[in-house]
Each structure stands twice: as C-alpha cells, then as structure tokens.
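Limitations
The structure tokens in this dataset are predictions for the assembled complex, not deposited experimental models. Users should treat interface geometry with appropriate caution, especially where small molecules or nucleic acid strands are included. An illustrative entry is reproduced here so readers can see what is and is not provided.
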Amino acid sequence: MSSERALPAGLLSALRAVVQPGAVFDERDRLIAYEADALTTSRGLPDAAVFPADRDELIEVIRLLHEARVPFVARGAGTGLAGGAVARGGVLVCTTRMHRILEVDAAAQTALVEPGVLTDAINGAAEEYGLRYLPDPASAAACTIGGNVAMNAGGPHCLKHGVTSDHVAALEVILPDGTPLVVGRGADGGLDLAGIFTGSEGTLGVISRIRVNLAPVAAGVRTFLALFDSVADAGRAVGEIFDAGVVPVALELVDRETIAVVESSIFAAGLPLDTEAALVVECEGDPDEAVEDLEEAEKAVMNCGAREVRHAHTDQERLAIWQARKKAYGALGRLAPDVFVQDAAVPRSTLPDLLPRFMEIARRHDLRIANFFHAGDGNVHPNLLFDRRDPDQVTRVQDAGAEIMALCVEAGGTITGEHGVGADKVRHMGLVFGSDELEIMRAVREATDRLDLANPGKLLPEAVGDLTG
Amino acid sequence: MKTYRPESELDLREWVESSTDRLVDERAPAVTGAPLDRSPTGLGTLPRSSVSTTHLSHVVDFRPRDLTITVGAGMRMSALARIVDEEDLWFPFAEAPDDRSIGGWIAAAPVGEFDASFGPVRRHVLACTLLLWDGRSTSWGRPVMKNVAGYDVPKLICGSRSRLGIVTAATLRLWPRPRILRRFELTGESLHDVQAALSGMPRLEAVRWRVKAGMTEPPSMTVSIAGGPKSVSARAEKLEAWARDRGVDIREQEREATSSGSVGVERPVRPGTSAAYRVTFGRGYLSAGLKDVNRRLARELDPWTVEAYPAIGVVRVSTQRQEAAGQRHAPAWLTTLAEAGGRVGVAGPSLDAPSVRIERGGHAEHEAARRMRSIGAREIESRWLAAFGGLQVPWQADYL
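Predicted assembly:
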C-alpha cells in the first residue's frame, strides 16, 4: 500500500546525507517492525524510517521532509496505546537514538534531556543527587520521555504529583517547517506554549529537547494492599480515603480478572483468587508522616468493608505489589492474544456506578474485561480481551469500546485520561468537543503546519461529517 | 470611564459583540490597562469602557466527592473558601490575602505560596467556558482530574490575560482540607539568606519571604505546615527550635483570619503608579538571584518590596512609582537584569524560557518583556491568538 505513495526521487539520499550511516532505511521487511505501536489494532506502514542522532540532524531531517512536502510521524519507543506513532505512508522519524541526558542541574532540580531518553533513565541519572522524576507511566522502563511529553502521559503516582505536563519546565520543538522553537510556561508573560505542545501528539512539531523538573526522593514511603469482596466497596473506599483528609501518592484498583491472571504469572504477589477487587494505597512524606497518613487510609478502607489489609513491610514487598500492578497489562497476554486497552477519565464519585456497567457491556458483547486503573484520579482502564484474527471479535470489541466511551462521557468524563487520542480516538472527539472548539484546534494546528505534514490524521477529526461516532 | 457589569453570560456576549473597547477586568472596581492598539497614547491610559464579571459569581456545580467545583468567573476567593470549607474541602489559592476573583486569578496566573506542594494555577483549572472576542461561547476541558483529549487549551488560557477571550466560568481542582494547617510568621536577620535558612528548617508546605526597600527592617517569612496532627506538631516544634536558636522572632498566626471569611481590600489601580515584576531564577539559585536583584534595586528611587517563593525559585518585586502615569522607561534594574538573562550561576546547556515577567506596569515595561521573548515564540503566540480570534495586544488589564 505504501508503494502507491512513493517518496519523491532523491529524498532518501538527501536524508542519508544528513544522518549517520545506516540511520535511514526503506526496506519493507524492516519497516514492518514499526507498523504498530502498543495498540496493535491500528496499523500502517511508512515509506521509510529515519533515526537522527541529535537535535541538529533532526532539524535537517524535518527541513528536508518539509521541502519535499512529505508527511512524517515522530516516534519514540512505540509503547503508545493510541496508535499515535504509526505512519500510513510518509516517513517515520524515530527519536530513539537521541538518548543523551544533557544536564542534571541538582541545584535547580531540573534535567535537560533528549526525547529518546528512557523515562526510567532520568531517575537513574537523578538518583545520585537524591532527586527523581515524578511521573511514572507503567511502561517507564521502556518508553521515552519524548513520547511521554507528546502524549502528556500519566501513571499511578500522578494522583498527588501531577501528570507529565506538570513536570515539563521548558521544551524545544522543531516546527513542521524545520524551525527550532524554545517554549516555556509563560513565565515571561507570554502564553503557556509548553502547555499546548505537551500532549499535542506530534501534530505541532517534533520535540528535540526537554527540561524536566525533578523533586527530592521522599524520605518515607508506605504502601498497603486492601482486599475487597465487592468492586463497588473498593470504589467507595476511594472516596472515603479523601474524606479522611488524606491524599495518597497512588491509589490503584485491580479487579478479580486481573488478579487471576497476575497470580498465574511470574509477578504473582500472593493475592487470594476469590478477591473481587484490591486497592493499592501508597502514602509518602517524612517517615512519620507517611505512617500517619497510611493509618488514616487504613481506617477508611476498613470502614468500607475491606476484608483484609496487607502492609508492605519492606521495600521488596512494596515492589512486589507494584510489579503485580504494573505488569498486569503484559500478563493479560496469558488470557488472550490481544488486549484493547481502554482509557477514559470520569468524576471519581461515579466509579461505583460505572464499574458494574462496564462489566455488563462486556457481557452483552460476549467479551472478557479486566480492570486495573488509577482509581484516585478516576482514570479507568476497562481493558477488553480478544483475538484480532477473528474479525467478529474485533467488531464486538470496537462496539463495546464505543459504548464504554459514550458511558464515560455521559457521566461527565472524557475519552482519554492519559493515553491520548492518536488514531484510535479521533472518531470519539465529537463526544467531548463541539464544532467551534474543533475548528479552533484545527486553526491552531494550521498555524504551525499549513501543509498538514506533522502526524496527519491524528488527534483531530477531519472538518466534515458527523463526529459523534 | 464606565464599567459594565453584566448579569449573565448572554449580556456579556452582547457587550462583547457590540463593544469596541475590549477590556476586561474580572474584579470591579479595579480597572486599568488598555489594549495598546486602541488607546490614544499607547501608554496605558484608561479605556473608554470596561467590563467586570463580578456578577457572574454563582456556583454552577459543586461536586464535593469528586473534589471539583464549577463557579462563575466573578466569584471571589473568600466566597469560594467558605463554600468548599463547608464540605471539608480546600483550595490552596484562597489562602492568599488578596481576595481575587476566579476569572482574574486565571487571567493573571499569579504565583501562589502553595505552588510547590500543590501545583500552580494551571494544575487547578480543569475546565472553563471561554467567551471569545467574536462572541462565540466555547468550552474547554472536562470536570475530571486527567484529560488528554485534544490540545490542552486550559493551559493556554491560564495567564493569557484575557487575550484569547473572557473566562465566564471554570471548574477547579479542590483538595481535602488538610487535617491540620498551621501558619507562622518569622522575622529576623538570620533570614537574609533564604536558602541557608530553609536548609535548617523542617519541610514546609508554603513559604513566602519578603523584605522592604532599603532593608532597614529585617526580612520576614510566612510559612505553612499542613498534614496529619503528629507530623505537623513535630515539624512545628522543629521550626520553633530553629527560630529560638537563631534569635528569629516566631509567631503563630490565627488561621481563621486568613482563610475563610477574609475580605480583600478593594484597591482601584491607577496605571503607572505601581508595577510588579516576577523574576524566575530556578530553585537553588534564589539566594544568588535575590542578592543580584537587591543590588540593582539599591539604585532605584522608587520604594519597593521584594517577595520570594523559594520552593519554585521565583522573586516578585513590586514598586510604587514616583513618576506619573505613562512613564516611558522601564526601570534600569529590570533592563539590566533582563540583559543578564535573569539567571544567575547557571552552568551547562540551558533551555529556559526568558524569565522576567511583568505582572503590572506600563507600556515600556511590557514592551521590554515582549522583546525578551524569542521571535519564534512571539510569532507562534500571535498565530495562535488569531486562531481564537483573540486580541493581538501584549497585555491587558491588571486583575488585582
């Protein structure tokens, strides 16, 4: 399919001239490795892929693509869950070779990094100064910071500390015509341009450098796991913890289906299989403060009918709890070949009502569903299990997914809390934006990309037709 | 000059559509600032008319269990504090002594004492209704804690000084009321080096440091400690011991006076008589930066006050001007500081936005700030303002 949109003559050799040897290829068998990101249902092949090694090479690459009027898609590690880093024709610009940590400024508590740096690697570099990068997407060991910023990624610990956008101090973006632009948060009295580029999913340009904020490592961290006989009780406990005046750093819910699959994997944490739902609650601060907050949280979950609370007494026990939570996605592979990872955010108080309704939708479409999500933030992941080789299952998954989205929006929520719109959710954008808002966002995009070159077809729906899909 | 106070968004819309003097001030009666392309002198003279959202101050939707509230832009912080307090909830910005309106607070995006521990303005505006300057009413964001659908337009609105449009209502992120919140006032010479002082203190949720012109009085510091009873009293004891050891006067403030129920002083602002600047040094460079600012300020004739927010590395300088309205020159200290880049002692490759921000002032100062911004950023900003049909002016009202 990509051969129909062959690249202009001479572009490949022009690209080869500005990057390192071997950093451009167009062989189909090599490109296939890049036909999807972690959302495996959304596929497409680029005509070529290019791997600039630094900012200057990236600028040259974008300039050439702009000159040749060839669309491009920026891609980090390809761990995205919205099909945002998939190219259908054009050139894939991979930032994975731009992986230097340029500076850790311990006094200012910031780090200047290239986009291809792994999220966890920032922590590795900050550690010796007693600092850390706070957002922790579950894929932090594999995903890149550039991808995190492009999608405004979240993670379990965003509840207290905030999402990626809250930790981006400044950015350098290569605009779609190849012009580099440094943007901050409007500290100069201008607009908060970094705020818009963060989460713009590569549609406004390609990120070339990022200054992230770091924070001191907390002196005290305390974690427990609360087991419940009902999902609704666990949902209620979430509200009860806040009512007690406690803001945990993380507050995660894992349901029975997820527990079963994790317990049968190498990440087993010894959870009883008859547990309907488990809450992971973590508090941090000064050592005595973490203990005090966790005590309050424990009272709250017991009030809501938790049948057991298991404390992590050692770092090892704490990590085991987190491994069980963070590796749940991978473990789902034991149940089905494919997982349709859902991501929506709803007002927290609607959780006890919505969770059973997600289950009901799955049942009606004869699908299995596994919930593990950021309950404290109301950021749900009702994941649907299926086999994409069966077209009927694919249709049912899409129908069930659309129903779940509509339900979340009806409850006051939004179509994505942390994974992004990408290619996957463009059709749902009309659920949360009116035509004026969509038109304005299109104008914002056109203001930097008149030729529609940067990640075309993502984030924003076309300006025609009925958008309430 | 007439200030129009619409009773509804619909009335405001009519005003926007019919008005030629497009100036907004969310907090009557403080009104100032003129779009530069419209004022006859281009120097901050008063516009012919203005609008205040003071009557758009109702609660649209309060969801205590979701930790969100949606209110009209004219609601004051003191009123908001009272409403959320009844449900044991808390909004950190309502602790500030200046009783801003929500709309003015969003438009100006001021520094907050609790920014380092709870996040700045931009983290707290989950959604808002924005009346565009062409009369269209648009809605951005959702009443949820996380949302990455579409461009993050609420971020662009925060601090935009109404250039994109007028915020008529906003959904705010609330917090559970801290189980204990204690506030202390410290005064003493040992506070001069704010970073050194802080390194000996326990962890604090909020710190505001200040010194007055000439430094004839010792610096003072307002600090807050929040959390569970054990942790708060342990930290308060440590703080008191620290103060005793260094001869620093320490007094605990009654919380009631500063939180719910405080009424702000209504100060009409006359353009040109006062100015405020925010200089971002970055955490860790604050002491050096403060020294630098004080050295430069020593040559200024106008009386000034310097405030510092060490946890976010920001210094705020405010002055009472001796010169009359419409002064043509930015103060010398500002110009030289801006030329120095506003950063002190930073080594290595740097990627920082220009770091001097004019919070209040005249044409000359705003032009100086605009020049500090890169040409590229100015260009993108201007194009994006056009996407909203927004105002292409470097500044708007004062939003006290």
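Some entries come with short summary sentences. For this one: The radius of gyration of chain B is 21 Å.
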